[in-house]
Amino acid sequence: MQHTGVHMTWSMAVTEGCAMERVCFTFELYEGAEVEYKRRHDEIWPELVSAIQAAGLKNYSLFRRGTQVIGYVEAHPDAATAFAKVAESEFNGKWSEWFKDLIVNQASDRGDQLSFTEVWHLE
Fold first, then answer.
1. CA-wise closest residue to 42 among 66, 59, 72, 64
2. CB-based burial label for 52 (10 Å; 0-12, 13-18, 19+)
3. What is the pLDDT along the chain (123 residues), one digit of tens a residue?
4. Does CATH number 3.40.50.150 belong to domain 7-114?
5. Residues recognised as catalytic
6. How much is the pTM?
């Protein structure tokens, strides 16, 4: 089964009085791009890391199996706010452009992210 695009699940939580949204997403890499995808993340720009953290994204992880990448991040106070802040960063745009040759597609044909419903969570 071939998976393409980005599929996301967002789940709101309130932890210690702070609103937070859990986000899970997946997308496909082009065949043969796996090593380069890892190499580029090994050299992530400090300015981008700072922008991600300043936007309220925390506990951010990426996992890869073959060409499929799965990510998890906690967005404070919510995904829309945090991702909008990251999008304002000049480094995010440059980073995204740099990855166009590695990532098959990050959105549906309509340009939106496909979401899933979180079915279970344990703190």
1. 64
2. buried
3. 333 445 555 555 555 567 899 988 888 999 999 999 999 999 999 999 999 999 999 999 999 999 999 889 999 999 999 999 999 999 999 999 999 999 997 666 666 555 566 788 888
4. no
5. 41
6. 0.80
